[in-house]
């Protein structure tokens, strides 16, 4: 198993010291397990289990009631340029006629 380069100075001479990785060139020490988690980032899956990313376009897969809006969000509505966020409603977006709102990724599919 090869060790990653130092995240600070990109040195290849990183070595293991217990659970930590240590860089002999800039003396940086870090926990590779934590680094791996940070790299993973936010994982948001649509109704088909496809991973979504910032800037994707999605389609609503079922009619959704919108709090405070006079009409439902219709199945098949295209939503452009989504932004992924933490939480229960994990998609931040703007929808024509509704404005800025948050959606649950389980109610959309990647367009
Ligand atoms: Zn280094």
TrEMBL record:
Domain Protein YjdM C-terminal: 44-111
Superkingdom, natural source: Bacteria
InterPro entries: YjdM (IPR004624), YjdM_C (IPR013988), YjdM_N (IPR013987)
Domain Protein YjdM N-terminal residue range list: 2-31
Family: Belongs to the YjdM family.
UniProt-recorded name of the protein: Alkylphosphonate utilization protein
């Amino acid at each position: 198993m090869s060790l990653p380069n130092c995240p600070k100075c990109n040195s290849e001479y990183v070595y293991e010291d217990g659970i930590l990785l240590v860089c002999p060139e800039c003396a940086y020490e870090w926990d590779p397990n934590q680094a791996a988690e940070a790299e993973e980032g936010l994982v948001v899956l649509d109704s088909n289990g496809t991973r979504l990313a910032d800037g994707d376009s999605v389609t609503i897969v079922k009619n959704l009631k919108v709090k405070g809006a006079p009409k439902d969000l219709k199945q098949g509505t295209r939503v452009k340029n989504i932004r992924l966020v933490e939480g229960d409603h994990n998609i931040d977006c703007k929808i024509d006629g509704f404005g800025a709102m948050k959606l649950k990724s389980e109610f959309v599919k990647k367009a």
